[in-house]
Amino acid sequence: MYWLSSRCCSSSGNTSSRRIRPSEVQLFTISELGWVLGNGASIKFLDDVWIGKKPLKESLSSTFLEPSPTIREVLLDQNHHLCSIIPHDLDQLQLSSHKDICVLAATNKGTFTLKSAYDQVRSHGVKHSPFYRIWHRHFSRRASMFSWLLLHRAVPVDDHIAECGINLPSHCCCCRRPHVEDMNHLFVHSDLAKGLWLWVSPVLHAGHGIHMNISLRLWDIIKSCSLTNPHDFITIYCSMLIVWEVWKIRCKMKFEQVKYSSNLLRQNIHALVTIAIENMVFNDAGTPQQMEAIVELGFFVQPIVKLGKLVRWFPPLQGLALNIDGASKGNPSPCGGGGLVRNAYGTVVLALSHFYAAGTSLLAEAQAMCDGVQLAVEQGIFIAEIYSDSMTLVNSFRTGLSPSWDCHRWWRFVLDFVHHHGVRVSHVYREANQVADALANFA
Ligand SMILES: [Zn+2]
Fold first, then answer.
1. Residue 172 alpha carbon to ligand 1 centre in Å
2. Using CB atoms within 10 A as the burial measure, which of 91, 92, 167, 181 is most buried?
3. Domain 320-442 maps to which CATH number in 3.30.830.10, 3.30.420.40, 3.40.1280.10, 3.30.420.10?
4. CB atoms within 10 A of CB 8
């Protein structure tokens, strides 16, 4: 089965539409379709994707030439020769009365719509080159402009002018000893520049000061620092201001014979950076070491104040409460789930911890919830409330829409249970779900 999609929608009558270029066309092949098991009547046992990421016949060593039976045909016949190839952890597969659902595996909802297809093939987010960082709105425009010139090696130092065929006697005014003036010397090795780089050394990352080429040094700093962190913001802006201030002073000394004071330069840079950080709100506070480095340089950044909220586990008003949690060390990666049932006094009635192989945290959460409910039913325990720290999962029971097609099987079991017994599913903060979290991590 093939579906045609494209990077853009070309609906006629829409003024923003445009023609689809052949390079933008992408095919969704059968391997991108998955099946959620219901009564098993529509799923081809060997040919369709219903366990793992590819059809069973592709992952098996032996080849099957006969047409594939449906899952229903295989599971209802205990002696069917294909029963033996079902993986061990799936040997308790149960058919339900629901219909099988075909999903677009690459999407979360699993539905094939123009939007879901478009979301698959479009590029997400706006990617900016680190180069844009020099144009931050709180940076001095002149410093930004000069940094741009420096990164393009377009600064009219003596050496550069000589390269253009105009040979003048060259003399660096920023050193006590006579030296030819070239870009790397003026902005890295001159007495003036050396003192300033030494001054900002506490905020420079290891390895930033090693480039003797000033353009590479500045580019390295801009590339590795983000502007959301106060430490990195100060590092970038100080570096840009150092080159800009050195250039200004160099021109003044060369053409106006003005004497410079290195201290005055530092004060200028300090004042400009202070004004910039006063206007900034940083999302990221930075590490204590970074904050120390900032203070060492004489800067003060207002720390982000977060209001505290009292969080605790609330016992159920009546009956028993099930707390569940899923743990995954990445998405996707090996995951597990845990949970426990407690009464109104906080006494643990039962607890579970189960490893689920590869999956996402949401998948682990849904499976853990299903396991918790199944175990409670088997033990004859009546659950009145279910607590989870996954807002997505909790909301899905309110809306009745599965949060993701791959956890649909377990989610539907819990949904049926919740509807049938009038059980409440509520969200709790992670801090109030610590025991279940520990059990999930243990799994
Ligand atoms: Zn010099």
1. 4
2. 181
3. 3.30.420.10
4. 15
Q: Count how many Cα atoms sit within 13 Å of the Cα of residue 162 in the half-sphere of its side chain.
A: 12
CA 248 to centroid of ligand 1, rounded, Å = 15
Contacts 24+ apart (CB under 8 A), 21-30: 24/121, 26/120, 26/121, 27/2, 27/3, 28/2, 28/3, 28/104, 28/106, 28/112, 28/117, 28/120, 29/2, 30/1
- Domain residue limits, the chain: 3-121, 130-296, 320-442
Q: Are 179 and 158 in contact (CB under 8 A)?
A: no
Give the chain's count of helices (H) and strands (E).
Answer: 15, 9
What's the CA gap between 40 and 72, in Å, rounded?
A: 5
pTM summary value: 0.52
Give residue-wise pLDDT tens across range 201-218: 888 877 666 788 999 999
Which tens digits make up the pLDDT trace of 178-203? 888 999 999 999 999 999 999 998 88
C-alpha of residue 177 to centroid of ligand 1, in Å: 7
Pairing relation of β-strands 320-328 and 383-388?
A: parallel
How far is Cα of residue 278 from the mean position of the Cα atoms in its chain? 29
377-424: per-residue pLDDT in tens? 888 888 888 888 888 888 888 887 888 887 888 888 888 888 888 888
Distance from the CA of 197 to the center of ligand 1, in angstroms?
14
Query: Both tokens of residue 277?
Result: 């950080």
Residue with tokens 């599965």: 402
Ligand 1 centroid–CA 188 distance in Å is 9
How would you class 20 by CB atoms within 10 Å of its CB: exposed for 0-12, middle for 13-18, buried for 19 or more?
Answer: middle
Q: Find the 218 Cα to ligand 1 centroid distance in Å.
A: 19
Measured in Å, residue 208 CA sits from the centre of ligand 1 at 21
Task: Give which of 338, 138, 143 is closest to 247, Cα–Cα.
Answer: 143
